[in-house]
Design the sequence.
């Protein structure tokens, strides 16, 4: 039932336990209509359902399932079945209320920022923040990742940062990351691009909360960082 009730495996692997939990709860509810809920059986790697859904990600998917399952127990959405001495569980009254108002926000947000073509650094450090709705921090971390990558590739020190770092790294004549085969106008444009992006997108959110930032705006900004990261990594 994983294919039916869960987002694509790539999205699931990026989710926090609390974000995946509603999907697990829905799945467990369907199981409970015909069978008892059992943690061991539910996460069994040899299950054809898990194998068919997760494929090469079986072990990672098992861990995500277990994290979400334990989260549901901690929040008292599932509890030990009375008179059982094993792993049998039932869905509590609180769990039943959640099922009546399923929250699939994390999945919808994940569709806005798919992992496909996203730089690995952003998948690891930025997307989890975005899925939790922490948009200003996700944008800040995206451009911080650009700054760190420029510093790393250019061999600069931690004392080099921000707009000044970009101007130094992409200086048309002396920049370590300047494409020497480009026209002078293109070299200057590259310097302006990186310096402008850091000045416009990283600096403001590092100094204050951008409360009106929407998920769509955050995606636009993050994708700018994604482009810059790929340019530095090439």
Sequence:
């Amino acid at each position: 039932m994983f294919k039916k009730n869960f987002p694509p495996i790539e999205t699931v692997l990026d989710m926090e336990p609390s974000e995946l939990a509603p999907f697990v709860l829905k799945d467990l509810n369907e199981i409970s209509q015909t069978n008892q809920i059992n943690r061991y059986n539910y996460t069994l790697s040899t299950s054809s359902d898990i194998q068919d859904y997760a494929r090469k990600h079986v072990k990672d998917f098992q861990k995500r399932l277990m994290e979400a399952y334990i989260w549901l127990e901690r929040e008292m959405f599932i509890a030990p079945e009375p008179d059982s001495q094993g792993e049998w569980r039932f869905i509590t009254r609180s769990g039943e209320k959640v099922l009546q108002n399923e929250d699939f926000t994390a999945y919808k947000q994940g569709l806005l920022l798919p992992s496909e073509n996203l730089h690995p650094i952003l998948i690891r450090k930025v997307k989890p923040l975005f899925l939790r709705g922490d948009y200003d921090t996700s944008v800040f971390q995206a451009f911080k990742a650009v700054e760190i990558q420029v510093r790393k590739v250019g061999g600069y020190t931690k004392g080099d940062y921000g707009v000044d770092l970009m101007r130094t790294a992409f200086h048309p004549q002396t920049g370590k990351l300047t494409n020497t085969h480009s026209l002078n106008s293109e070299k200057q444009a590259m310097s302006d691009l990186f310096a402008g992006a850091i000045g416009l997108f990283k600096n403001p959110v590092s100094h204050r909360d951008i409360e009106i930032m929407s998920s769509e705006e955050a995606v636009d900004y993050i994708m700018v960082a994604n482009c810059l990261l790929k340019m530095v990594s090439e």
